[in-house]
Every structure is written in structure tokens, then in C-alpha cells.
Write a structure and sequence with these properties.
Layout lengths: L1 E5 L3 H9 L3 E4 L7 E5 L2 E4 L9 H9 L3 E4 L3 H9 L12 H12 L3 E8 L2 E11 L2 E9 L4 H15 L4 E5 L3 H4 L4 E4 H12 L11 H11 L3
């Protein structure tokens, strides 16, 4: 893995993403940022996304109110906050500020899950061409981040995206079909997907979204 200290700007971040690199801080309180370029890269195949039946029932039940791009700052703050088993994160205030700028530029997006109007889970990332670069997710109640991920995949499929980059593979993501591929393979797929004429679907028509969600259970 290659790591180099850098001074980041939103424009530099976008150029880096296009070349397969992504930034991280050493810790929540750390001031130094690095480019990461792992030898093995995590991806979640959009055509091979697996949704367990119990989770699909939760998604379709409407237990959570799910939206996109309605509260990006709160979503990234939730991802940066300590949680059981994750007392520290790589999202420092500079990272938060940079992604907030990318959101205002229309390239960083969030998916939010609310329960009785309270934000209880979500995720965020960057969309370029036909690639969604997933950054982080959080959950304050059972299944909230999983439901956000299912909604993300449904939106990406509706919008014609080709590649969902997860950076690394966790046990949580592996349950949905995430896998590691070699860096060279990832960059080959990245170049091809960046040229795809995709569009981010923040608020698709309800019937289209419901059909896309049901289709994930049939994959």
C-alpha cells in the first residue's frame, strides 16, 4: 500500500479518485492526510449484490424513512462519531470540510435512514461518471446502515452506474457480495466505468424505486 502526505483541495481529490486513490486521516484528531492506493481493492458488484430475505422485508416494510442528499453534514458527522467497537475514525475535520464542499459541488452524496424523524443511519460517497466511491457508513439502530446500502445500490442501478468501490472489504460488506480484486484489475474497471453515462438518482419516482428494491431480492 502506498501512503504519501499531502495537502488536499476538492479539485485534487477528484483527480485522485479518477486515478484510483483516496484520502484518509490517521485518526479523528490527526492533522496529517494520506493518499491510499491498496494492492487489493474492495468492490461490490452491482449485478451480484445479495440482499438477505429478512433484510429485504425490512427495506420494503417502510420501517425507516430513507432519503438521499437531505442532510449530508449530519450523515458524515454520524460516520465520524465514535461507536461501540469503533472508538476512533479516519474522518477528521478537514475531511469533513472537503466532502462538504464536494457535496455543494454536486459530486458527494449521502443516503439517510430516519426512524420517527431521527437520523439513525446512513452512508456517503462520491459519484464520478459511472463510479460511486463509497466512503463510510454508520448505524445507531439495527439494520439502518444496511438499509441505506440497499437503497444506494437500487439508486446506482437505476442511474446506470457500473462500479461501486468500497475501498476495503469488511465482514459486513462481504455478506452482500463484496470482494477484493487486484489493483491493476480495479484500475482497468475504473477507467471503463468513469466513461459511463450514469446519473445520480437522489429522488427517483416511488414506483421505479420500489421496483428496483424488489429486483435486488431477485438477483
Amino acid at each position: 500500500m502506498s501512503r504519501r502526505s499531502l495537502e488536499l483541495t476538492p479539485e485534487l481529490m477528484l483527480r485522485a479518485y479518477r486515478h484510483g486513490l483516496f484520502p484518509m486521516a490517521e485518526s479523528r484528531g490527526g492533522h496529517r492526510l494520506y493518499w491510499l492506493d491498496p494492492e487489493r481493492r474492495g468492490i461490490l458488484p452491482l449485478d451480484g449484490f445479495h440482499v438477505p430475505r429478512r433484510l429485504l422485508r425490512t427495506v420494503l416494510s417502510g420501517r425507516f424513512a430513507v432519503s438521499a442528499d437531505t442532510d449530508f453534514p449530519a450523515t458524515i458527522a454520524g460516520c465520524a462519531a465514535p461507536a461501540p467497537g469503533r472508538e476512533d475514525t479516519w474522518i477528521n475535520p478537514q475531511i469533513e470540510s472537503l466532502f462538504a464542499t464536494l457535496h455543494r459541488m454536486g459530486v458527494a452524496h449521502s443516503v439517510e435512514c430516519r426512524d420517527a424523524g431521527v437520523l439513525v443511519g446512513g452512508l456517503y460517497g462520491v459519484a464520478l461518471g459511472g463510479v460511486f466511491f463509497g466512503e463510510s457508513m454508520f448505524s445507531r439502530v439495527r439494520d439502518a446502515s444496511k438499509v441505506a446500502l440497499v437503497h444506494l445500490v437500487a439508486r446506482l442501478r437505476l442511474g446506470g452506474f457500473r462500479l461501486l468501490d468500497t475501498q476495503f472489504v469488511t465482514a459486513h460488506l462481504a455478506r452482500f457480495g463484496a470482494a477484493e480484486i487486484a489493483r491493476a484489475d480495479y484500475k482497468h474497471r475504473l477507467i471503463a466505468a468513469l466513461d459511463a453515462p450514469a446519473r445520480w438518482e437522489a429522488a427517483p419516482e416511488a414506483a421505479r424505486l420500489a421496483a428496483a428494491l424488489r429486483a435486488l431480492g431477485e438477483a
